[in-house]
What does this fold into?
Amino acid sequence: MHLSVYLAGEIHTDWRDAIISHLGGEPISFSGPVTDHGASDECGVAILGAEDQKFWHDHKGAKLNAIRTRKALEEADIVVVRFGEKYKQWNAAFDAGYAAALGKSLVILHGPEHQHALKEVDAAALAVAETPQQVAQILRYVLSGTLP
It folds into this structure.
């Protein structure tokens, strides 16, 4: 079996690397959003031209990023969505909802401080983890039925 996993959510910590490093050698391909915050914010105007108003600047970037995100979410077997501690991730909530609407297997990753705020998102998930290591163990179990 081979899995395609989309790693959505916050881009300010190394949680993606932690999951991937725990799964070295497993037949998993990973994808995710552009994690260079500047590139993600500026892609629309860098490619399609400057905008005088911030709304249209952000609108162009959001649409270009959505092309990548939609394709990757649609192709994923499993979607992991990380909600970080420091910033509100509205994009992560949107990705979780989109993945749920597509019927994707959804794993949510966040600390206990977000349990109440994310209760509806958590209810749509097949698993809710608190650490990247738990996510790696979930993926390994899905692949081989092997417990930690």
